[in-house]
Amino acid sequence: MRGEYQQLVDEISAALGAPATLEDRDFGLIAFGAHGGDDDLEMMMDPVRTRSILQRRSTAAVRAWFEAFGIARAQAPLRIPPDPAAGVFKGRICLPVRHRGVVHGYVWLLDDGHLAGLDLKMPFADPRLAQAMESAARIGALLAAEARAGAELGELLRDLLTARPAGRETARGALREALGSAADGPLAVVAVAPWRAAADGDGDDQAGPDATGSALAAQSGVAAMCAVPGVLPGGSAALAALVRLRATSSPAPAQAAADRLLRSPRAGRADAAAGTAAAGIGTPRRGLAELPDAWAEGLAAARAAVADRKLGPVAQWAAIGPYRVLTGLPAEHAADEAVLPLLEPAHTELARTAEVYLDCAGQASRTAAALGVHRQTLYYRLGRVEQLTGLDLDDGEDRLLLHMTLKAARLRSRP
């Protein structure tokens, strides 16, 4: 199907005599058309298009700039003026790619002034523009069909990972039929947490939450993916993605998929700064039977990577250490009363000192170097920790209790 998109984009480029780029509604690149022999020059003269093609995605700032023109709600072509301050050196014409009223993407046409004569208020009056819009409509139908197929696979994956045993068995059989021989091969489950549905602030009230999931999945090398609501503390959703591997010992495709998924504007909370999302990869399995366990591992690894940035932004289950235990504990059982005074906001620096000290296996010189403090300052802080908690840092069990409680506090403070 990727070839069909390329053919239609080339048709639009030829009809209007302008370089065309097709992106999904999340500004992920699907296809782009060359324009004669000057396309390299055109790209150099417009860094936004260059980055889109080379990085396969536009930045969040570029997306916000273009969306400010109302492209997500536009029913007809829009003219976007150049803005060198935003890195947009050439004007554009945006053809919204819609199907049955739902926007599935955008076709962008670079305009150096030669398209100034197009009457966008009466688009069907110009046969060139009418042909381009007809091609855009065909693209919309293809993306809609992909979205439906992707949503069906996503529903099966969600049922396999989260439903009761009877529902899981039904979903497993249907997913095996849909995936064919790949269902019995090496697979990995990637979790991205937190994850926002497409309808959360995407500018299109008619779009369903999985409207572009298939396009994103195809770009990320994912066999199926779905949002799983309410699986994080506080009720936030996470993304589950099923990735085909070459071998269970080679998780590189899962790592690459996780990296790409984290660049989606849906990764993270809508009200949080960028970088608050992380991804986890469960132990690879062969076949579908153990995927619920792989999902639990991937989700735990993602939560750990959000809580402890040393592990992320992509963490594998085998590499998250004590978080393998802590993520399985109910939140109400993960805090010991003796340590609670240390967790108060007024003692944040003392808590950090204690955690680094325990991470360094109680070695004062390493701890002082890591914190950038004098050893006497370190000893004073550790004494204050003992006073607040009543714990003896020379006692192994007290140290274990403090260490695990501080790590658990990280998990509780994140979504």
UniProtKB/TrEMBL annotation:
<protein>
    <submittedName>
        <fullName>Helix-turn-helix domain-containing protein</fullName>
    </submittedName>
</protein>
<dbReference type="InterPro" id="IPR042070">
    <property type="entry name" value="PucR_C-HTH_sf"/>
</dbReference>
<dbReference type="InterPro" id="IPR025736">
    <property type="entry name" value="PucR_C-HTH_dom"/>
</dbReference>
<dbReference type="InterPro" id="IPR051448">
    <property type="entry name" value="CdaR-like_regulators"/>
</dbReference>
<feature type="domain" description="PucR C-terminal helix-turn-helix">
    <location>
        <begin position="350"/>
        <end position="408"/>
    </location>
</feature>
<dbReference type="Pfam" id="PF13556">
    <property type="entry name" value="HTH_30"/>
</dbReference>
